[in-house]
């Protein structure tokens, strides 16, 4: 059974940083691209970042490029989203994703 478990969300001030983690199980993690999405209140879920099998290729939404960094540790079946220079508009529930599977989400709130 595929399981994705996010952690690391919380409340942070504008300009601050957070690191999200997603622990994966139930599939061969190192063979899959992994992605982060987010959904703000009243908005559709949107793509944030994606990383290739070995981490050699990464892709970002324009809104987060240069501020967020996606990475992975295949030995730990875990991937990450380092979020810097956070803005109030980054407030959302963040989800990790592989194919049709989603985690439960972790809330990120950016507010002073």
Shape: globular
Q: Give a quick account of the main beta sheet: strands, pairing sense, barrel closure.
A: 7 strands, mixed
Mean pLDDT: 97
Residue ranges: pLDDT <50 for 5 or more in a row? none
Count the helices. How many?
A: 0
Oligomer: single chain
Structural class: mainly beta
| Strand fraction | over 45%
Plain-language structure description:
- 0% of the residues lie in helices and 51% in strands.
- The protein is an all-beta fold and 112 residues long.
- The strands form 2 sheets. Strands 2, 4, 5, 6, 9, 10 and 11 form a 7-stranded mixed sheet that branches.
- The chain is globular.
Q: Helices and strands in order, then pairings?
A:
Blueprint (H helix, E strand, L loop, with lengths): L2 E5 L2 E3 L5 E8 L8 E6 L6 E6 L6 E3 L7 E6 L4 E6 L8 E7 L2 E2 L3 E5 L2
Parallel strand pairs: 2-11
Antiparallel strand pairs: 1-3, 3-8, 4-5, 4-9, 5-6, 7-8, 9-10, 9-11
Summarize the structure.
By secondary structure, this protein is mainly β.
Q: Descriptors for this entry?
A:
7-stranded mixed beta sheet; single chain; mainly beta; 112 residues; 4-stranded antiparallel beta sheet
